[in-house]
Amino acid sequence: MSNPETISHFATCPRGLEALLSAELERLGAGTVKSVAGGVAFQADLRTCYRANLESRLATRILRRLATMPYRNEQEIYDIARALPWSRWFGASKSIRVDLNASRSPLKSLDFATLRIKDAICDRFRDDTGGRPDVNTREPDIRVHAYLDAANVTLYLDTSGEPLYKRGFRVQSVEAPLKENLAAGIIALSGWQPEDTFLDPMCGGGTLLSEAAMIGLGIPPGAARGFGFERLDDFDADTWKTVRDTALGAQNRERRLSIHGSDLHYREVEYARENLRAAGLGEVVQLKQASATDLRAPSPQGVMVMNPPYGERIGEKAELAALYPQLGDWMKRHFAGWRCYYFTGDPELPKGIRLKASKRTPLFNGAIECRLFEYKIIAGSNRREKP
User: Which pLDDT band holds residue 385 (cuts at 50, 70, 90)?
Assistant: First the structure.
C-alpha cells in the first residue's frame, strides 16, 4: 500500500446491489473502489472504515483484508494463516470464530480448511504470547473470514461483528423477513426521495417502512448497535466518537414524511408497529390493517414498493394466480401517476399482473434469484383492448 494509513477492505452485499454499494462507499470516503460479484473492494483508513460500518445501508459486512496468497492444499493455507501476526490485531483473551467461503476451490473439505485456519491462529498465538484464544461460534469477540477461489486464499478480519443488516432494534420478526440492507437497496433502486409519498401495502414486519423512514430522516442505520472494530487493538475511540457524533448530528428527526404501510393480517401490522416504535419511528409511519386492493392512493403521486408472497404449495399458487391480476387492475384504477415496484422470486408474477414492466432488475435474496419489477402507472389502459 502506498499510503500506510489506508488498508484494503472488502464490503459484502446482496448480489445485484454492487453498483449502488460502490457509489455509497465513495460518498463515505472510500478510495480505489471496485465492484465484483457479491461485494466491493476498496481502500479506507480507520475513519472511513468506521463510517462505512455506521452509515452504509447496503453492506452486509466490512472486512479488512490481511493477506492474499496462492495455495494448493490445506497445509499451505495453514502456513499462510500462521505467518500472520494475529496478536497485533487482538489479544489471546478474545474469543474467535472462523468462517470460510469458496468458489471453484479444488479442496475436498472446506470444513477441514476452516479448522486448519483456526489451528494456525491459535498456534501463532502460542508462539507469540504463550496463550491462545478460545473458539466461540455463537457470540465471538473476533470474526475471521477466509475466501478461497481456484488459486488464492484471502484472509480478512471482520470489522462489523454482527452482519450490518441487523440494525439493532428489531423486536419482532415475521416469516421469511426481508433483510434490511436488501430493503434499503430496493428503495434506492425505486428512486424514492423523502419528499415523495411512500407506500408498502404488504408490509409484514415493516422492514421497508423502517428503512424508508431512516433514509428520510437521515438516521444512520448502525446508530443502535455496536461493531466488531471496537474489539480490535487498533480501535481509536476518539476517531469513532467524532464519526458517530457527526453522523448523529446530521439527522433530521423533525422532518415530516409521508410513509404509509398496511397488511391484511393484524399480527403483521402489530409486529411492524412494535419494530417501528423500537426504532423511534412509531410516529413517522402511518399503519393500518387492510387488504391491499382496498387501499387508495394517499396522494396524487408517489412510490409504492411491495414484496408480495409467493407460494410453494399448490393451494398457495392457485390463490396467487387469482391475486396477481387483481393487483394489476387495482394499480391501473387507483394509482395513476405512481411508480409501483414488486420484489418477488415468483417468475409468474409479471404474467399475472398483466401490465408491461418498464424495468426488471435482477437481485438475490440470499440464494434465491429474484426480480424487482417497475410499473409506471398512467391514467387509462397501457394497451389497447381487444375488440
Answer: very low
Q: Whose CA is closest to 268, among 208, 212, 314?
A: 208
Cβ neighbours of residue 279 under 8 Å, at least 6 residues apart?
167, 169, 210, 213, 214, 224
- For residues 190 and 341, the answer to whether their CB atoms sit within 8 Å is yes
Angle formed at CA 209 by CA 54 and CA 243, multiple of 5 degrees: 15
Cβ-in-10-Å burial (0-12, 13-18, 19+) of 9 comes to buried
What pTM, to 2 d.p., does this model score? 0.93
pLDDT digits (tens, 9 = 90+) for 19-56: 999 999 999 999 999 999 999 999 999 999 999 999 99
Domain boundaries, the chain: 7-158, 180-221+251-376
Pick the CATH number of 7-158 from 3.40.50.720, 3.40.50.740, 3.40.1190.10, 3.30.2130.30: 3.30.2130.30
Q: Contact, 100 vs 108, CB < 8 A?
A: no
Q: What is the pLDDT of residue 2?
A: 37
Of 2.40.10.340, 3.40.50.150, 3.30.300.30, 3.90.600.10, the CATH number of 180-221+251-376 is 3.40.50.150
Cell representation of residue 301? 403521486
Let me know the angle formed at the C-alpha of 151 by 146 and 154, rounded to the nearest 5 degrees.
25
Contact 182, 17 (CB under 8 A): yes
228-268 confidence digits (pLDDT tens): 999 999 999 999 999 999 999 999 999 999 999 999 999 99
Q: Decide: residue 129, CB within 10 A, 0-12 exposed, 13-18 middle, 19+ buried.
A: middle
